[in-house]
Amino acid sequence: MASATVNPDLQKERQRATFDADQLTYFLYDGPANTRRKRYLQNLAVQETEKYKFRPIATLSQEQQYEQALMRSFISGQLEDRLELKNAKELSFLREAVAPQVAVPYGLHMSMFMNTLETQSTEEQKARWLPLAKSFRMIGTYAQTEMGHGTFLRGLETTATYDAKTKEFVVNSPTITSIKFWPGGLGKTANCCIVMARLITRGHDYGMHPFLVQIRDLDTHQPLPGITVGDIGAKFGFNSNDNGFLRLDNVRIPRDNMLMRYSQVLEDGTYVKPKNDRLTYGTMTLIRSNIVGGAARSLSMAVTIAVRYSAVRRQSEIQPGAGEVQVLDFQTQQMKLLPLVATAYALTIASRNMAAFYLRVRQQIEQGTLEELPQLHALSAGLKALSSWQATEGIEACRLACGGHGYSHASGLPKLYGTGTPLVTYEGENTVMMLQTARYLVKCHGALQQGQKLPSLMKYLEQPPGGSSGLDPRLDLSDLVTAYQHRAARMVSDVSAKLMSAASQGQKPYAAWNSNSVELVEAATAHSEAYVVKSFVETVSTFSGKLCSVMETLCRLYAVRGILKSLGEFMQDGYINSQQAKMLRSCLADLLAEVRPNAVALVDAFDFPDAVLDSALGRWDGQVYQALYDYAVNSKLNEKQVLDTYHKYQRPFMESQWKKNTTVAVPARL
Ligand SMILES: CCCCCCCCCCCCCCCCCCCCCC(=O)SCCNC(=O)CCNC(=O)[C@H](O)C(C)(C)COP(=O)(O)OP(=O)(O)OC[C@H]1O[C@@H](n2cnc3c(N)ncnc32)[C@H](O)[C@@H]1OP(=O)(O)O
Ligand SMILES: Cc1cc2nc3c(=O)[nH]c(=O)nc-3n(C[C@H](O)[C@H](O)[C@H](O)COP(=O)(O)OP(=O)(O)OC[C@H]3O[C@@H](n4cnc5c(N)ncnc54)[C@H](O)[C@@H]3O)c2cc1C
Asked: What residues sit in the active site (predicted)?
């Protein structure tokens, strides 16, 4: 990453840091050896990719973006083979550097399609399909969402009707709203997909199940009979991905193309029920867990760009006549960015805990134990929503904090936003996800009322209501965790009481649910925030020395900022009083000042190569003006001094205006 001339302001920032950023990098990448390996892989990927001199993706048409993304995947594939990479983390670092924030068309194949095959197929099906999928003879996607329904899966209309005579399923899209719409890679890339369709056998509808459907010829890539497939057109972002539509006109597939690990249809059409019919939703749960890490990483990139730029950018004076300051010295700028640096770390840590929890429960499921599945669903849904909301809002805040240059694609921030914001919608729309978490919280509250024991993550709901916070200016970390848990427990209890009172007044449960759903979402958000704060606190207390004190400060900043943002929720029952609220305000100002000297080192620790950030403003060497100028000079419009459009449209337009007043004397030079 070394560069001949580093901007002096950035250099000073790095020198004044009170801790060794490398130590934090080692934490993020699991030790010095893995960090070296990550750097090696990413450097190699960057060198290889630079040879292709790709144009910035934002300057390309949809078709060109798609083409570039395929080329990037091709380069990645070559490197992966050459290096014989197998390790999932190593692969992800390599791919991140070859295709930074590029939604590649094989994304769904490598994530949801492969995972569904692996977790929902029988052993025999796995033996048949996995070798084809791993060797990209089969390129798949996950086709669940339809034009008419994405959220309400029970409303899906695509049917798979069993025909016992031929031992086949007939897969059909009966209406315009039943057309599969949005699946990634479906438009032009995939040759098969997992179609989620309502299973009908012996005249009975058993709801959504997964089926493997071939949609294109494996050799010519032409759509098969009965298949109408294509790309859905240009979108807000994600244009390198051919999100597609799919219409199935009574397409016949063999009986054993239904993924039969959990439920089966026997040859005679008998349906065999799964142990839990929500196991069909398993792939969504995995991806929701992964999204927490993806959101954290996108936000980490955005804060790296905005903090480095704010250290380089000098604008206005603080002390009159004393010269222009780094914009990062304005308290308001610190308030915009430093809590977001804290959020990036908080989410990174929460995502690791989430991933570990997912793995543990997945292993239990493999062994047939489903006890922790509801807890996993509630946690992954809530964290998916919280992390993607915080990341999306955070990326946009970073863009705004970069002033005019943030608006240019040269900043890299619009690309981060375009790729990051669909996280709010896909894999379960966030409000809907929070309501799923709320459903579980209300259930836990009910169980508690009946004297039952709660699972580990919900134990805090057992704390008695009322009481007051012990928070004082020392900002003890355990007091902060307790405050978040108290607020969440109080909100869950309040909204549960409202639901019960509505029931006692004869209101139907579904109506009571809807008329309290704003509060339910708030309670689920509070619960998810409590989890993030607890994870952050538990992890930083394992650090030592200077790193520990820097991270504790960052953790306090995250927690205090969060309390002040939702102060009413913490004060409503008097748990935090007005004196404490005042104290927290002053503490916030102190925390900003405390984090300020380490701001650049904290973002450096994320260790993103420049090519991954892909930003003129976030460069490691801080040479932002040269980079911005180079970007401008390379604009397509600058390829010719006088464009054809001058002769075609501008000149005729000007001449039409001149005709209105022919008496104006025009000098040869102005
Ligand atoms: C990225 C690259 C570039 C870099 C980007 C930078 C960032 C990168 C980020 C990268 C990250 C890596 C990603 C790789 C790429 C992936 C791309 C992904 C693309 C997106 C794919 C999709 O977008 S793909 C479609 C997803 N489409 C949904 O997501 C539908 C939501 N809609 C539902 O999910 C259901 O419709 C909904 C609401 C639950 C109601 O379902 P329902 O009506 O059946 O259920 P009810 O509400 O009646 O609940 C009945 C009982 O089921 C329980 N339950 C419900 N769900 C359960 C579950 N999952 N597990 C266990 N239990 C569950 C519930 O808790 C109740 O339990 P109980 O009865 O005991 O209370
Ligand atoms: C970039 C991108 C990639 C995608 N990739 C895939 C893919 O690979 N495969 C696939 O199958 N799908 C994919 N999708 C589709 C995605 O999963 C759905 O868009 C998503 O599940 C939301 O469903 P919806 O679009 O029907 O939204 P709707 O459910 O129509 O949501 C619209 C509004 O209604 C509200 N709402 C809906 N239901 C409720 C409720 N019960 N309570 C309260 N509010 C509610 C929502 O909160 C939202 O505000 C992708 C989408 C995008 C944007």
From this structure: 427
Instruction: Identify the H or E element spanning 174.
Output: none
Please indicate whether residue 142, judged by its CB atom, sits closer than 6 Å to ligand 1. yes
Of 205, 121, 138, 211, whose CA–CA distance to 171 is shortest?
211
8 Å CB contact between 548 and 540: yes
Strand ranges, E, within 306-350? 314-317, 324-326
Q: In terms of Cα–Cα distance, which of 358, 528, 359, 513 is closest to 437? A: 528
- Nearest CA residue ID for atom 15, ligand 1: 107
The Cα-based distances of 473 to 538, 555, 563 in angstroms read: 20, 15, 14
The CA 381 to ligand 1 mean position distance, Å, reads 7
CA–CA separation, 523 and 518 (whole Å):
9
Residues facing residue 163 across a β-bridge = 168
Q: What's the pLDDT tens digit per position in 478-537?
A: 999 999 999 999 999 999 999 999 999 999 999 999 999 999 999 999 999 999 999 999
Residues 6+ apart with CB under 8 A from 497: none
Is 419 a pocket residue for ligand 1 (Cβ < 6 Å)? yes
Q: Is 197 helix (H, G, I), strand (E, B) or coil?
A: strand
Choose, from 96, 146, 396, 427, the residue flagged as catalytic.
Answer: 427
Average pLDDT over residues 638-653: 98
Residue nearest to atom 33 of ligand 1 (CA): 151
Confidence of residue 46 (pLDDT cuts 50, 70, 90): very high
Q: Encode pLDDT of 565-618 as tens digits.
A: 999 999 999 999 999 999 999 999 999 999 999 999 999 999 999 999 999 999
Active site residue 427: yes
List of residues 6+ apart from 472 with CB closer than 8 A: 479, 580, 583
| Residue pair 568/519 in contact by the 8 Å Cβ criterion | no
Q: Which of these, 493, 496, 480, lies nearest to 573 by C-alpha position?
A: 493
d(CA 556, CA 562): 10
What φ, ψ does residue 507 adopt, rounded to 5°? Answer: -75, 140
Which residue shows structure tokens 């538990």? Answer: 538
- Is 184 annotated as belonging to a binding site? yes
Decide whether any atom of ligand 1 lies within 6 Å of the 100 Cβ.
no
> Residue 520: which of 551, 546, 497 has the closest Cα?
497
Which residues are registered as beta bridge partners of 245?
181, 230
**Beta carbon of 392 within 6 Å of any ligand 1 atom:** no
Ligand nearest to the CA of 278: 1
Q: Could you give the CA distance from residue 139 to residue 110 in angstroms, rounded to a whole number?
A: 9
**The two structure tokens encoding residue 140:** 């798949």
Pairwise CA distance, residues 641 & 155, whole Å: 57
pLDDT tens, position by position, 68-96 = 999 999 999 999 999 999 999 999 999 99
Mean pLDDT for 374-401 is 98
Supply angle C-alpha 335, 571, 386, rounded to 5.
55
CA distance 390 to 269: 48
31 has binding-site annotation:
no
Angle in degrees, CA 506, 509, 511, rounded to 5: 90
Global ipTM: 0.96
What are the CA-CA distances from residue 525 to residues 562, 634, 655 (Å)? 12, 45, 61
Q: How far from each other are the two terminal CA atoms of the chain, in whole angstroms?
A: 48
